[in-house]
Amino acid sequence: MNRYGLPSHVMSAFRRPVAIAAAMFLAGVAAPNAQNDARQIVAEAQRRSDARSQRYEGLLQVVDSRGKVADKRWTFSRLGSHGQSKAVLRFLAPAEVKGVALLIVNHPDRASDQWMWTPALQRERRIALQDRSTRFFGTDFSFEDLEERDVSQYDYRLLGEEPIDGAPCWRIESVPSQKKISQYTKSEVWIRKDNYAFAQVESYLKTEVVRRLKYAEFVQVQGIWTGRRMEMSDLRRKSRTMLTLEKLEYNVPLKEEDFALQALRNPL
Amino acid sequence: MRLLRLISWPYLRKHAVRSLLTVVGIVLGVAVFVAMHTANQAVFFAFERTVDRIAGAAQLQITAGEAGFSEDVLERVQAIPGVQVAVPVIEAPAATRLAGQGNILILGVDMTGDRSLRDYDLETGDEAIVDDPLVFLAQPDSIIVTKEFAARNSLAVGGRLTLSTMVGDKAFVVRGIMRSGGLTSAFGGNLAVMDIYAAQQVFGRGRRFDRIDVKVRENIAVDAGRAAIRNELGVGFDVEPPASRGQQLESTLAVYAISMNVSSVFALFIGMFIIYNSFSIAVTQRRSEIGILRALGAPRRQIRNLFLIESAASGLLGSLIGIAVGILMARVMVGTISNMLEGIYGVAERAEEVSADPRLLGTALAIGVMTSMIAAWLPARNASRVDPVHALQKGKYQVLTAGENRARRLAAAVLMAAALVFLWIGRSIWFYAGYLLIIVAALLLVPTASLWFAQGIRPLLKWLRPVEGALAADSLIQSPRRTSGAIAALMLSLGQVIGLGGVGRESYNSIVDWLDTALNPDLFVAGSQNLSDRTFRFPHSLTHDIAATPGVADVQPVRSLRVNVGGSPVMLIAIDVVSFERRGRRATVAEDPRGMYALTKAGEGVIVSDNFARLQGRQLGDFIEIPSPGGVLRLPIVGVMTDWSDQQGSVVLERDVYERYWQDDTANVFRVYVANGADPVAVRESLLARLSPGQPRLLVLTNAEVRGWILQLTDQWLQLTYSQVFIAVLVAILGIVNTLTVSIIDRKRELGVLRAVGGFRRQIRQTVWMEAVAIGLVGLALGVLFGAANLYFLLQITGRDLSGMYLPYRFPVGIALMLLPTILCAAFFSALWPAESAVRASLVEALEYE
Fold first, then answer.
1. ipTM beyond 0.85?
2. Taking a C-beta distance cutoff of 8 angstroms, is the pair B584, B518 a contact?
3. Is A120 in contact with B127 (Cβ distance < 8 A)?
4. pLDDT, tens digit, for every residue of A180-193?
5. What is the pTM for the complete model shown?
């Protein structure tokens, strides 16, 4: 007889089921916490990278399936914070595309609005929502990939932990919520545990990984950890695009009027 | 089968040439039928395939007539929940500056989204450029061509292609070449792709698109998507599947098909009578054989079937040859129809595959065999009724009995009376039935009429050559069976020549009258020498520039476009009606008492052409509905005038009303009137000097140049008459050779006796020649009479079903006079060989002939 007044053999018989039930109870209690943790992790990563504005010069290198490399350069300016910002991307090189500009107006509750300006034609064109899955001007990014994501637009689930390039990371599943229109079924995001910077993002169509974005060369600029090199791989086309951020600055004074359609028409 | 082997085959072998000549009649009819339908089908199929390929995965296409619509419509369509993809398109034909290439169709698309619908399947090209739409979009001179076009013109990536555009001749850089198949097959490879916004600039579209191609979401039915789009856009927009464009072409080709059907029917009739002629002759020649067979106990049915089987075999042979000839002819006709399509679509559809539908070939075969058997029915029946005793008598069988003649005349009278009743009823099917009855009645009267004419010209022939002429005339008078088939065929053929010639001549005269009254500006400012080309449009501001040119008294900007009214694509002409009234002298058919021009100017009505009114069954006061991007325009007809602008009809609308509803102030053509005393040529030079720098595409044409171009098009109709004359000559030769050959055989003894009593070879020849000329004369006389009636019917068909324009009845005396020497020469030519064979025949054999 043990101290609970039950015969020992009965205790033994119940010991395993009780343990299992306890584990299940604990798991049930832990599950919402895991989801909350995932959202909290992403929210924290977003908070740490938040800035009123951003500006850089980008070197874009597209490597096709045959290994041929094509270079482009652009300037990128963003005004506003995650999900509610405006951005202007303006090509600097090569000569054939110099002056072509893209205006992106991000909204937290719906898809972004995008316009493209062509200096040779002296007119803008709207990029339709249906076209967002199209490759962005020959790169492995799609137009949707240029949109800013806000933590509120997705549902999250912590999948575990996995290192990327030796850095311990949380691995989080991110599924677009109902209000978010996306070409992707889901994404998996790796966030570094040491500085909450994004290390890798894999985008899925149904169960197939179609794109992989990897960050490297992390630097701290004005207190914000940023991967200076990004490599987007299109796993179906077997091509990749490298984007290197140069002259990166945050919280620079930018004018609201520089992020309007009329501003696209201004020459560099 | 034994009879075929023992009786028919030896006869056919002995008269192989004549048998073959007989078959030629069926060959002709079947060939025309097969050629016409095969060519139509080939071009239509090629066009449908082109429409499908250009459409790609698009399930619906949104258009608003030829005017297009503004860009903001695109966002409205893209915002519709059931729409998955909506992409804008501009289609514009552009003249290349390459030898032998003609026009190329430019497909202007937005490459950022168009690849959801169309696969460009690039073969070569700087991948970084072509596969990267950024450079393609950034460089507005970028173009992608097909592999076929590139190969034909030795173009490679980086090469330059010069096209004629609204901004003048412009060099484009080839940045990609599409692989073969799919899109590249459209128009035989004469298709190129460029950025839509660049296309807007160079083809004068402003901020408008020609159409939007749509794909609905997977869980939405196409019809539901169509309804949603119509609901959003309202009236004024057509939302149709791509296949409906093929149906529009089918309607256009149907008009062409009617005229070709008439020709084909005539060709078959002519073939039928050549066969009837040959079998009648064969039956009479083989009366002895038939008599013997009957005497041996062969039933009538067996005799009849023997000849029907022979005719079926002839028909089968003729049909098979006709099918082969028809397919060859179709390859030539395809070019003609393709050129007609170029006027509609701007680019010639090269129908690479001309293969006949097996069902069509089966139909042609059946028609050929049935025609042959129908033609041989009467001779076969007559053969079955041969009395064995009479069969052995010579000379009497070519005579038509008095009873037979009376029966034919009675039947003809009854048919004519019925035809008149049908014509009085007037509706379409009764009209055509009446036409058919008149033709049959005329054919029934041929023997009687031939006899009368032969008797009438006997004195003339006898006066020319007393002995030979009399013999020739008597041969016709005494043997109507032998000659009536050939004469009937000649009558039909020449009747068709006169009918078509009359219609052609009156069309020509009416167009000339119209040119004098309606096309009276001194100069025309246009974007193309082809005034009907509506691709190029000029800004309205050009009106002031033209008006400010010294020597210019008046300018009328005109915007014309095709719109769908009452289910037909008619020509809408937007013009300043006040100026139109002041300058124009068009004949008014009907007018509102309050004044048609005043009402039209006020936007309270429209003026329509007389052929529009007829084709659509409208009259003064009736309302018509014109769809526009700004809504349906519903206006009454306040005037009807004579106008040859368009075969489907035209509607004149005040320009201000047009601009309001279509939001379009461009013009296709400016009609320019010079001041009194000013020299049009000098004013033209001034216009070119002032306007060309800003409008490189601009042309200034004089009135004489435009008239010349229009009359050149009209002359093409008359060429059809000349081709019919050729057929008539061919028919004459065939029929007369056939008839004379039998005549010589029949008169072997007679000609032998003539030689035995001292007749010269020359006299034998002249007898045969004069008989041929007599047949030609009688055929010509009957052809002229029948042609007079046929002209009436063809004019009615033209007015009712083809163009809606009723032309005055005027007998084409010139054409009839031209036929006289033509047919006489053909008849004489036909007699040469039979005359020689008559002369060379053995005298001993001739006298032994029994």
1. no
2. yes
3. no
4. 778 899 999 999 99
5. 0.67
